[in-house]
Amino acid sequence: MQTKRVLVCGLVQESNSFNPTLATLEDFAEYGIYEGNEILDTDNNRGATIDGMLKVLADEKITVVPAVSMRSISGGPVADDVVEWFLNKTIAAIEQSAKLDGVLVSLHGATMSASSGDVCGDILEKIRQTAGEDVVISASFDLHANITEKIIKNADYVSGYQTYPHLDHYEVGLRAAQLLAAHLNDNPAKVARVEIPMIAPAHGYTTTKGGLAKLMARAENMKNSGKIIDYSIFQVQPWLDTQDMSSTIIITAKDEEIALTVAAELAKDEFDLRHELLGTPLIEISEVIKKALNNKSGKPVVLVDSADSPNAGACGDSAAVLEALLPYRSELKCAVAVTDSAAIDKAFELGVGATADFTLGATIAPKLSNPVVVKNAVVKSLHDGTFYMYGPQERGQLRNIGKTAVLQAGNILINVSYHGKCEGDIAFYRSFGIEPELCDLVCVKACTSFRAGYESISAEICNTNTPGAAGPVLTDMPYEKRPKPMFPFEEITEEHISEAKCYR
Ligand SMILES: [Zn+2]
Question: For residue 343, how far is its CA from the centre of ligand 1 (angstroms)?
Answer without folding.
Answer: 30
